[in-house]
Fold:
Amino acid sequence: MSTTLPLLLRIALATATASCAVSGWAQPSGEPARTAPQQQAAELSDPLLQLLQKRGLVDKVAAQPAVTFIQQFRDVASDMVISAMNFLGVHYQRGGNGMAGQGFDCSGFTRHIFENSIGLVLPRRSDDQAKDKSLKAVAKEELRPGDLVFFNTLKQAFSHVGIYIGEGKFIHSPRSGGQVRIEDMRMAYWTTRFDGARRAKVLAAPTTAASHADAASAPAKAADLAGK
Structure:
């Protein structure tokens, strides 16, 4: 097997800024220091890494470079984006919202991620999400991870929605027969159909320990859905 990170990981890795340095693992006070093998084992047990391996997005040979990727990604991306990434590969289902083993349609996906990551319940339809008063309009050049991005894909304004993850990429549930995936907004198809972006006003508030706990538990929830 190749030790090169798959394309999907390299795309997500692009969300890390050039100035971001990988921080070392901080040993909690009062606990004995871990040996190098113990530390490596702890890193390789990261739930997000395990999910990526299960989905075939990184093999075990490439696991150690992937640990570095995950550390960088956690440093620069919001808990919401990490939560959304956990659902890569979940199938599209018209009207689906992820409940009872369902897949997602585009607005069902964004609604599920927002509700379970930051506790914000968005309207069910993508056009209504664009008009929701709990969100504010954001200029394209000011996009940051966690923003909603809207597109006109059905000759109707705000007929499709996804979540921006950085470096011109967004994650979404595309269409019937598709799966949750990452795409580049700079492709001609998406550029000509871009309708605008919105940011949850509550995202300006400090991240709480509870939101980190929710993001940490998301891989198990996503794995359940992917197995359906």
